[in-house]
Amino acid sequence: HEQAVARFSAAMGEEHPALAILRNNLGIALKNAGQLPRGLEQYQRALAIWEEALGPDNPKVANALNNIAVVLELQGDLEGALAQHQRALAIRRAALAADHTKISESQVNLGALILKMKRYPEALANYRSALAIDEKVLGSEHPDLGDELTGLGIIHTRLGAPESALPLLERALRVRSKAPENRSSLWEASF
Description:
The longest helix has 19 residues, at 36-54. This protein has helices at 2-12, 17-32, 36-54, 59-74, 78-95, 101-116, 120-138, 145-158, 162-176. With 191 residues, it is mostly helical. Helices cover 75% and strands 0% of the residues. The protein has 9 helices and no strands.
């Protein structure tokens, strides 16, 4: 990836929008390899290109902000991650239809982070809103609802309401079992 980025940058210039895609992909590879500072740098460079080329309120900017937030969270900078997730959600709300699944995706990301911060009422609101969007758009039995349902179940468990958590977690298991693979990080969360 790094050689491709260097060659493309030399040929097309550092501000070319397609370079942002390469930098974002390199950031993903570096993050997955555990090289968080280098991955973060690539995400930030992709963000700068997209903001300059597309404007600060473009949904691609929200994608870059989400990636930056993930790395910041992995580095333990929860407040920094929170700011990035909040900005990504604001961009998506302004640019997309109110029931767009990218909005629910941002709310799940924000809810998971806020849950980690033990701010349960805020996390609950984000998960509920995301669930309402995804149920409307995807249907009540779609596997992607597993993230929201699991998050809601965890929150109810942590709030001392296992009787409320159980049906949510059972439903999460039922809808998740329909997915070809398990993609949820919350799925493995411990209580």
